[in-house]
Amino acid sequence: MGSKLKNISLIGLGVVAGIAASIQFDAIAQKSATAPLPLEEVRQLADVFGLIKSDYVEPVDDKKLLTEAISGMVASLDPHSSYLDKKGYKELREMTQGKFVGIGIEVGMEEGYVKVISPIEDSPAYRAGIKAGDLITRLDATPVKGLTLDQAVKRMRGEPNTKIKLTIARKDEDKPIIVTITRQEIRVQSVKAKVVEPGYGWVRITQFQEPTVNDMAKKIEAMYAENPNMKGLVLDLRNDPGGVLPGAIGVSAAFLPKDVVVVTTNGQLPSSKATFYAKPEFYASGPGQDGLAKLPDAVKKIPLVVLVNTGSASASEIVAGALQDYKRATIMGSQTFGKGSVQSIVALPPDRQTAVKLTTARYYTPNGRSIQARGIIPDMLVDEYADGDLLKGLRVREADLTKHLTNDKDKEAEAAGVPKADELEEDQRLIALSKKRKPLEFGSKEDFQLAQAVNFLKGLPVKLAKATPPAESEKDAAADKDDKKDVKKDSTKKVDKK
User: Fold this and answer.
1) What DSSP character marks residue 487?
2) Which residues are in the PDZ domain (predicted)?
């Protein structure tokens, strides 16, 4: 497939959200082992520990060694499991509440440097003039090359009102740009909404947080208060990396019939074999706190389009999958990321200030589809821009991540091919062309996919993807065949109102 932008993470003011998990907080700190400890291997671990203590070139702290051993053991499982130290655990809890401390940029790693995918609106980085496409080459005096993305992210984190100096390489600039940014705590609003045309609303969810369901409900209520005769709604989940599981259940419940199945999960533990319904007890923050209770009844029946892309992951895919299975919405855009696993946050004894973020289950849509390493295939494939999506084949998905879980309904994994030289050259050509484009602002007048969604709701022609990409495998297409609408190969399609 060629080179890709790897390890996209969100420094929502310093905290990594990553291709976010469908997170559940587990109150159980420790569970009974299912088998006795392998004594020979444990003895070998102790021997290595002793060898390092006695023979390493300089003394090593016991706690550091053991913490790194735990961290490596958990990280070796899959891309989404990790050990959280005190600071990391605290920041994760804050992240689910929508607040972060740092500079405010969404980033990836490219050619050994941190690449700015997007500055978060009104963040310190945004105000400092950081732009999408900038390459961060130094953090204070430390070169970025040689650091992992996580290490670079940790250096950009910090306490409020502390400063960090970024050295930036920018296209068309001959000299490096040096910017000093003051870290701040910023509360990120996960829901945006507006009426894009009379009678047609747009609701964007940037990340599933604890307040998301209530915030979305308030935005929709306000929209109906000003426009009682709403004709159609666009739910925008593009580049939404996921978040907390109750948020996904609540957003789905807002549009689905009462009490239907939204998602099921399955793993080793009995507690991981669960079914989640469109009921307040599965998404409300507490008894009698159903944020959806005041939504107009019309929301359950209003024609609905869900916009997704490769950056739509996990909780976003739960919502898109449920609405697609019940044929409640038309899914539009490009194939999603394919993260079909649930992570539980397990606090560790004795002080419960550290934790393990552990993959404990796979999740399935109401029809039993597994999203893992496959994703949601839209009903209507629509490019990001009117002239196509140049980087469509270069964007990283779950199936591209090292040690990703396989799709348990498709155990036959395809061998990854090595890209040929001419393919790499084509990758570079497409990347160069894409840099000439103005960064897309979701919800703006230039938002091509949103315009096509509104056209669909109005019964007007929709400009479909110029070249429909093949599914990741024939089995992907077969699995989604019954759920996909019959889309003609013409560049436009006349559709009726739903």
Assistant:
1) -
2) 89-157
Q: Of 128, 163, 187, which residue is a domain's last?
A: 187
Distance CA 157, CA 328 (A): 41
Tell me how far apart the alpha carbons of residues 95 and 98 are, in angstroms, rounded to a whole number.
Answer: 5
Helices 39-55 and 62-75: crossing angle in degrees, nearest 10, is: 130
Collapsing DSSP to helix, strand or coil, 187 comes out as: strand
Q: What is the pLDDT of residues 106-159, one digit of tens each?
A: 777 777 888 887 677 678 998 999 987 889 999 999 999 888 777 888 889 888
pTM of this structure:
0.73
DSSP-derived pairing of the beta strands 380-381 and 330-333: parallel
- The pair phi, psi for residue 118, each rounded to 5°, is -165, 135
Report how far apart, in Å, the C-alpha atoms of 332 and of each of 123, 189, 305 are.
Answer: 30, 24, 7
* Strand 341-348 relative to strand 135-139, pairing: unpaired
Tell me how far apart the alpha carbons of residues 64 and 66 are, in angstroms, rounded to a whole number: 6
Q: What is the rounded CA–CA span in Å between residue 79 and residue 461?
A: 41
Question: Could you tell me the CATH number of the domain that includes residue 396?
Answer: 3.90.226.10
One domain for residues 296 and 331: yes
Q: Phi first, then psi: what are they for 218, rounded to 5°? A: -65, -40
Looking at the fold, whether 297 and 227 belong to one and the same domain comes out as yes
Which residues are tagged catalytic? 314, 325, 339
How many structural domains comprise the chain?
Answer: 2
pLDDT tens-digit profile of 260-316? 999 999 999 888 999 999 999 999 988 889 999 999 999 999 999 999 998 898 999
CB 333 within 8 A of CB 449: yes
